[in-house]
């Protein structure tokens, strides 16, 4: 009789079915959304409950800021009045760019209704290819006023100086009675030496002088002027920015002095830069394009 051998049990383990990830992720998302909704509703409830206190607190902070700004403006207006009063024989002017927005030129006549305006500098270009978006508009409008107008270029130290000069020359058409062109230099270079910067400035000045037949004016802050420009560009005249509260008179070596950026001018929204010419109206006319 054949011996029956019992079959061996398989030792292989059965694989457990893979967990259903999609259901788990969906559940977690629902929990997450639920928590977010709960937190948001909680914040709304707290805000509503303390609405009166929050309103008082926020209005109080706003009032403090407004009072501080008002006081700062008042002090600035006092200084502007004092400085202009000390220069009653000089000519007062201002400068604008696209950042002043739309200007009502028919209303632009004085500062704080006390000091008449005799000249304006208008930004024309910046760097090698940028033009002020309101230059054409401002330039034409200023030409219809009794003020002497001038145009300036904002110099970018890390861009080619000749290309910057050509940008200004393409954009600005000076005529008899306009002020000389202005080079505005305020920044230090990032990828070149100071010697290279000065050479670039010199190239811009020479190219523009050749194009218009008159030496340009250089604009800069007093520290920049003293540290980098005064000696090497002594053949040029300077328009200097100095907002020091304790400086009350223009220096002899400055042709123009920008002494504030916080003046109020009828026809212009917001604050405006104000400048003093170091001379009389006749002397101002004498430095214009012939």
TrEMBL record:
GO biological process: carbohydrate catabolic process; cell wall macromolecule catabolic process; peptidoglycan catabolic process
Segments of this protein annotated with the region Disordered: 1-21
Keyword set, alphabetical order: Glycosidase, Hydrolase, Membrane, Transmembrane, Transmembrane helix
Keyword Cell membrane attributed: no
Transmembrane segments: 31-50
Gene3D superfamilies with a match to the protein in the record: Glycosidases
Pfam family, one: Glyco_hydro_25
Gene Ontology molecular function: lysozyme activity
PROSITE patterns for this protein: GLYCOSYL_HYDROL_F25_2 (PS51904)
Family: Belongs to the glycosyl hydrolase 25 family.
Protein name per UniProt: Glycoside hydrolase
């Amino acid at each position: 009789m054949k011996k029956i051998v019992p079959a061996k049990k398989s030792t292989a383990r059965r694989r457990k079915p893979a967990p259903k990830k999609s259901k788990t992720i969906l559940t977690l998302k629902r929990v997450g959304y639920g928590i977010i909704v709960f937190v948001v509703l909680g914040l709304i409830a707290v805000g509503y409950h303390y609405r009166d206190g929050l309103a008082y607190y926020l209005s109080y902070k706003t009032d403090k800021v407004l009072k501080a700004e008002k006081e700062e403006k008042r002090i600035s207006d006092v200084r502007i009045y004092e400085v202009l009063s000390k220069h009653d024989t000089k000519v007062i002017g201002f400068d604008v760019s696209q950042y002043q927005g739309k200007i009502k030129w028919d209303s632009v006549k004085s500062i704080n209704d006390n000091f008449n305006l005799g000249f304006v500098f208008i930004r024309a270009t910046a760097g090698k290819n940028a033009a002020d978006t309101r230059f054409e508009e401002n330039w034409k409008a200023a030409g219809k006023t009794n003020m002497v107008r001038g145009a300036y270029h904002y110099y970018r130290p890390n861009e080619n100086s000749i290309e910057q000069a050509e940008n200004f020359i393409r954009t600005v058409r000076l005529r008899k009675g306009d002020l000389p062109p202005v080079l505005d230099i305020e920044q230090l270079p990032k990828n070149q030496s100071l010697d290279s910067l000065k050479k670039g400035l010199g190239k811009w000045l020479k190219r523009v002088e050749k194009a218009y037949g008159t030496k340009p004016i250089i604009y800069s802050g007093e520290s920049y002027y003293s540290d980098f420009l005064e000696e090497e560009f002594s053949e040029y005249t300077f328009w200097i920015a100095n907002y020091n509260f304790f400086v009350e008179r223009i220096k002899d070596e400055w042709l123009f002095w920008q002494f504030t950026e916080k003046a109020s001018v009828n026809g212009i929204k917001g604050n405006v830069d104000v400048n003093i010419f170091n001379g009389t109206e006749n002397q101002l006319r004498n430095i214009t394009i012939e």
